[in-house]
Design goal:
Two copies of one chain form a homodimer.
Chain A lengths: L10 H14 L2 H4 L5 E2 L5 H11 L3 E5 L5 E6 H10 L13 E2 L12 H10 L4 E10 L2 E11 H13 L1
Parallel strand pairs in A: 1-2
Antiparallel strand pairs in A: 2-3, 3-4, 5-6
């Protein structure tokens, strides 16, 4: 059932087909649901949220759902190990803040999202849509792409 | 340069080619270097090691390099948040212990490793070789496969 001869089955052609497939898949098709908290959330409550929702990264937004920050397990671990009272530290103090966050748009490819994760050594990217509010550019959080998202996609591609 | 006609270029055939490629890549080709600590290491020192080596998971072995346990960022976070003295808690107390660890062998495929990561909801798998020592089956740690490994492989596949 798998002919191993002929022009199309050289390594080169197969690699090109795979590359095409991977760059054809859009972030919009694979994005997962982000867990979003407020900047005033305590580090303690953020850690509890992390465990209850079974995620590795929390996103921080204002009341309008605009991206303000991102908090990783390591950010929380760094804070938890040095402080006895994580109830009194707001995550706004420990999060990575805009504009220092690597983001992706729904129109970008799965390949581009994975490349950003690898190049910037992050676990997760917020999927955002740029909007103008009161003359300022804001980024609405509409999803996330994480190493888990990419690993699941890899399994899907291998399944056939 | 990319002929779009002919039998081999139906969606079905492309998916089969991708699946073949992904299952042809062996764990041995993609495995990364694991960071290994001893069971007596304190939770505090384990957290410091995690930051210094820039990894997300630590593996625990005996003096012969046999797998005993695995410690995630969440295991450490759970311990750090509830305890003021992480210097006095050995990671042996908080780690996941054999035989409750999902492992992979160098001969298994990248697809199989990714499937185990997704199905068991873990961040990392130790790559092990089974050996018999004093009549007991032991597992030598020879590498690791993580969500990062799979994400990097995904980027490689998309690059062509």
């Amino acid at each position: 059932a798998r002919p191993r001869v002929g022009y199309f089955f050289t390594g080169k052609a197969v690699d090109t087909l795979i590359s095409e497939k991977i760059t054809d898949i859009k972030v919009d098709e694979i994005k997962a649901t982000p867990v979003i908290v407020k900047e005033s959330t305590s580090v303690y409550d953020a850690i509890v949220t992390l465990f209850l929702t079974d995620v590795g990264t929390l996103f921080v937004s204002d009341d309008e759902g605009n991206l303000q920050g991102i908090v990783s397990r390591k950010d929380l671990l760094k804070t938890a190990i040095g402080n006895t009272n994580t109830h009194q530290i707001p995550i706004g103090v420990v999060m990575t803040r805009m504009p220092n966050i690597v983001t992706v748009t729904p129109e970008e490819s799965a390949y581009e999202a994975a490349r950003k994760i690898v190049d910037h050594q992050v676990d997760a990217l917020p999927v955002v849509k740029a909007v103008i509010e009161n003359g300022q550019e804001k980024y609405k959080i509409v999803g996330k792409v994480t190493k888990t998202t990419i690993t699941k996609l890899f399994v899907e591609l291998g399944k056939n």
